[in-house]
Amino acid sequence: MSANQRLIEERKNFRKNRPFGFVGKPVTRDDGSVDLTRWECRIPGPEKTPWEGGCYPVSVSFPESYPTNPPVCSFPAGFFHPNVYPSGKVCLSLLDNDTELGGQWAPSINIVQILQGIQELLKSPNVFSPAQAPACELLKKDPKAYDRRVKEQAKKYPAPEEED
């Protein structure tokens, strides 16, 4: 199955099985056509965490070799989280196919699982695999200050009204 065929199926399945609060759709090109290889998504902050109340934008870029190879997922540059590089790229084993380095990517993983995995990473950062030293150090040294910083960031990304 080609990447495009798989992404057409992903889009149909996402529309049917989208978890509450999650948004995901392919980008529309300037000419009005749909680019299935680039999605703009939003992930709601997990309840009962400092992330709650925010709805965080994530760009997902699927390679031509998808689903054999994972997509690249990115928050906006400068996003504050221990496992997000300063560029915004998400560092998550689910999105890595290098099994020797702990990568857990499998071609059966779908967009819902990817977005839910990133949501889980928000509330459960991996301090043993930091992509952003300042966020990681603050979390380790002063968790309350970390939580305050996360709550401030959440205000930048308010949850939109529920949309289809």
Describe what you observe in this structure.
The chain is α+β, with helices and mostly antiparallel strands. The chain has a single domain (3-156), classed as Ubiquitin Conjugating Enzyme (Roll). The protein is 31% helix and 16% strand. It is built from four helices and four strands, in the order αββββααα. β1 and β2 form a beta hairpin. α3 (133-141) packs across α4. 29% of the residues are buried. GO terms for molecular function: ATP binding; transferase activity. It comes from Chlamydomonas schloesseri.
In short:
By secondary structure, the protein is an alpha+beta fold. The chain contains four helices and four strands.
Query: Strand order within the widest sheet?
Result: 1-2-3-4
- The arrangement of helices and strands along the chain is HEEEEHHH
Number of strands: 4
Span between termini: 27 Å
Which descriptor suits the 3D outline? Answer: globular
CATH homologous superfamily assignment = Ubiquitin Conjugating Enzyme
CATH topology: Ubiquitin Conjugating Enzyme
Main beta-sheet annotation: 4 strands, antiparallel
**Strand percentage, roughly?**
15-25%
Oligomer: single chain
Radius of gyration using CA atoms only = 16 Å
- Count helical runs: 4
Low-confidence sequence ranges:
none
Helix content: 25-40%
CATH architecture name: Roll
Query: Any idea how many domains?
Result: 1
- Find the structural class using helix and strand composition: alpha+beta
The CATH class designation is Alpha Beta
Mean pLDDT: 94
Family: Belongs to the ubiquitin-conjugating enzyme family.
Protein name: UBC core domain-containing protein
Active site: 91
Keywords: ATP-binding, Nucleotide-binding, Transferase, Ubl conjugation pathway
